[in-house]
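Attaching the record inline, Q. Sequence:
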Amino acid sequence: MAVSDRDLIDGFLKGDRQSHQTIAGWVSVVIRSGSWNPSLSPEDIAADTLEKLFINLKEGQFRSDSSLKTYVQKIAKFTMIDAGRRSRRVQSDSQEILDAAADPDDFLTTFVKREEYALYLRMFDLIGNECKTLWKLLFQEELPHAEIGKTLGISTSAVKTRAFRCKERAKEIIQRIS
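Structure, as predicted:
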């Protein structure tokens, strides 16, 4: 029996086993068919994809421009691409971390720094576009709160509230994935 996209979304968000299995199956197809990088964990890719989907669907970001299956598989593909890029960044940044370490023979410190860096990259992939946009304006472009508010069409206090909520969401994600 065919289930509508809306019913699948509702079931997935409510924790319905059948809905979850259907969506996880679509994710698995993408992961299995992708050109695989042995340094990536298929289980991590699947988990990250399902977490992104949960957040996106909960926030109503699926617009029905395509089928839910297409949307899910697109998110899975982009999650794989992000993980591959993150893996390459971690590998290329490893030398910078080694160079920056106070004592290059202190492998524990170097390992911890690499792990922290990878954890923050993974958190950033999962955080959501609203926080990414806000952080870009705050930290990359170094705009004041009032100017960010004008850019986003919100009050200065709303910018501060969103920044606080993004920080709390980041802490929750780091706690969950670490």
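The first helix runs from residue 5 to 14. Helices lie at 5-14, 17-33, 42-58, 68-100, 107-126, 129-140, 145-152, 156-177.

More tomorrow.
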